[in-house]
Amino acid sequence: MNFCEFVQFFYNTFVKWQNPSKSGEGQQAALESFYKGQADAYDGTRRYLLLGRELMLEMAAKQLEIRREKGWLRQPKPVWIDIGGGTGYNIEAMSQVLDVPNYFETVYLVDLSPSLLKVAKQRFARLGWKNVKIICQDVRNLRVINDQSCKSQSIDRADDQEIVLLTEKADLVTMSYSLTMIPDFFPVLDLLPTILTSTGIIAIVDFYVQNMVDIGDRNYIGDKTNRHVNYFSRLFWRAWFDLDRVNLEPARRDYLEYRFGTIECRNLRNYLLGVIPYYVWVGCPRELPVSQNGNDKAEDMLKQIKTLSAKICEGEKQHPAIHADMLVETAVQNLEAGLPLPSAFYQVEH
Question: Would the pTM count as exceeding 0.90?
Answer without folding.
Answer: no
